[in-house]
Amino acid sequence: MYSAPLTASHSEQQAHDDAYCREYRTRLADLGFEIAKLAAHRAGQLMAVNPAFSEISDVFAAPAVRGNAGRRAEWAGCALRLAIDAVARLGLRRLATFFGAFVWRYFYPWPPAPPGLIEAAFTELVRRWRPVLDHAERAGIDICVELHPSEDLHDGVTFDRFLALVDHHKHAKILFDPSHMLLQQMD
């Protein structure tokens, strides 16, 4: 099984062209691979970027939206919707991604976060992700967040917090990456 990263060169074609998708899967099968899911980590990361990391995060965005955080987030949402459509067209069920990081650095208790900052960040995260999750629901695709250090959704507690705010959206799922279990102090 292979998790194919979704790149700009493939996303629009995969989202709209059945023949292309059939050929893509056939070429991979000829090499002994079967796609299990697609990955759109860069687009997901760009959905929520702390202003301190805006400039260094721009490298992951299309050149036309670099330097404009609002346009970059809109571009990322569009890229995720294309990825969802590509997942559906390829006959898959899951899209792996990050959810971004507005306030990761504030989860460490020192210096303490200003009152209301974490709540405001999660409210904004929900505002940005709810339309993507709803698009995924219409396509029958699960959005699998990779719980990852440096991300706002980095453990079960933060995922549960987000899940409660999106009314336990049935297409919001967790992707456990075994390589991170040591980092997350899991046996």
Summarize the structure.
The chain is built from 7 helices and 5 strands. It has a 5-stranded parallel beta sheet.
Give the tally of structural domains: 1
Q: Give me the CATH superfamily.
A: Divalent-metal-dependent TIM barrel enzymes
Q: Biggest sheet, in brief?
A: 5 strands, parallel
**What is the succession of H and E elements?**
EHHEHHHEHEHE
Q: What shape does the CA trace take?
A: globular
Mean pLDDT: 90
> In CATH terms, what is the fold-level topology?
TIM Barrel
Fill in the keyword field for this structure:
alpha/beta, TIM Barrel, 5-stranded parallel sheet, globular
Structural description of this entry:
It is a single chain. The chain is an alpha/beta fold and 187 residues long. It has a single domain (2-180), classed as Alpha-Beta Barrel (TIM Barrel). 45% of the residues lie in helices and 12% in strands. The protein has 7 helices and 5 strands; from the N terminus they run E-H-H-E-H-H-H-E-H-E-H-E. The protein has helices at 8-16, 18-30, 41-45, 54-57, 69-89, 117-139, 156-165; strands at residues 2-5, 35-39, 94-97, 142-146, 172-175. It has a 5-stranded parallel β-sheet. The radius of gyration is 17 Å and the shape is globular.
